[in-house]
Amino acid sequence: MKERKFDLNDIVLVPAESSDISSRSECEISCNGGSLPLMASPMDTVVSKENYTKYIDNGIIPCIPRGLAFEHLVGKPSYFQSFGLHDIEESIRKYELYHDELEYYDNDAFYQFPNILIDIANGHMAKLIPIIQEIKRLWPNITLMVGNVANPETFVNLALAGADLIRCSVGTGAGCTTAANVSINYPLGSLISECYEQRSHYDVKTKIVADGGMRNYSDIIKALALGADYVMIGSIFNKSIESAGFNYLWKIRINNKIAELLWRYDFPVKKKYRGMSTKAVQRSWGKTNLVTAEGITKYQKVEYTLGQWIENFKDYLRSAMSYCNAKNLNAFIGKAQYIFITSEAKRRFEK
């Protein structure tokens, strides 16, 4: 564990010696379910009941923030509904007590939602393993995502317990201060790479979700190249005009329609962005015993529409895959060659 680990900034991808791909348009960038390998983070300044379908329409899988009263919509299964650990434990308890009563199924969260996210900051808690096992026993058809973790061994433990997807990374998000204040972290490049290796070693099918700290297209592409099946994004999507963050012109809060109109006329519209462990979020969940925050609040300038950002992402990902001679994601994820570079080498091309 004492050897040096690497971050996404420390590497670049290397082209294949020879590529059979003549045009990047030959590269297929959709996952098995037809979406892009992208997820929108379960943050209340990113995803809401009002905008989650806009993510789906752009090929992104949104995660609905926990604490939102959200009803399952038939025909819109391509999202994850988030629950806290206490809510999960309560649902299991109620099922064991009342599952024989027909009316139970009218209110059971797990009956309504095919895709569930156990949204907790510390996915290393030992009690998470029996909870995963119980969920998969009681509701075997549920697709279950858990996390976050920052230890490849923990990834293995949760995968063997039955988790379908695991969020990897602690402290790297733009709204998170855990690494800065608590000193808990595992550099993301190494974490993704080692989780990918462990998954192959134990022959499990659990998907790797690289979550937090993506600053540009390059970071996302590197995360995929190292082995992430999906990349979860918060801050980048918050800077789209469609995001759930409150809109501000200077210090004046404005509604969505006015914000979009003003932004299209080049007014400096900003979006509120906050980590989900801030005290403001704790209050919104109804908590009265507030704990020290491990998140920050800031305001980000709106830079694009979701459609504009996605159009660029598709082209950049296809281009990277064409260099690496990968015609589909299966040939790219975890299989691209990379090399380590110095900070001086990075400065040479960083613009």
In brief:
The protein is an alpha/beta fold and 351 residues long. It is built from 14 helices and 14 strands.
* Largest sheet, strands/sense/barrel: 8 strands, parallel, barrel
CATH topology: TIM Barrel
Can you tell me the CATH architecture? Alpha-Beta Barrel
| Overall pLDDT | 87
**How many domains?**
1
Radius of gyration (CA) equals 20 Å
Strand segment tally: 14
Written as H for each helix and E for each strand, in order along the chain, the element string is EEHEEHHEHEHEHHEHEHEEHEHEHHEH
Low-confidence stretches: none
What would you note in describing this structure?
There is one protein chain. This protein is α/β, with parallel strands linked by helices. It has a single domain (8-341), classed as Alpha-Beta Barrel (TIM Barrel), CATH 3.20.20.70. Helix content is 35%, strand content 17%. The protein contains 14 helices and 14 strands. The protein has helices spanning 52-57, 85-98, 109-112, 128-138, 152-161, 178-182, 188-202, 217-226, 235-238, 256-264, 279-284, 306-323, 329-332, 343-349, and strands at 11-13, 38-40, 61-64, 80-83, 115-118, 143-149, 165-168, 207-211, 230-233, 247-249, 252-254, 269-274, 297-301, 338-340. It has an eight-stranded parallel barrel with strand order 2-3-4-5-6-7-8-9, surrounded by five helices. It has a four-stranded antiparallel β-sheet with strand order 11-10-12-13. It has a two-stranded antiparallel sheet with strand order 1-14. A hairpin with a 2-residue loop joins strand 10 and strand 11 (252-254). Helix 2 crosses helix 4 and helix 5 crosses helix 7 (188-202). The longest helix is centred in the C-terminal third of the chain and has 18 residues, at 306-323. The mean pLDDT is 87.
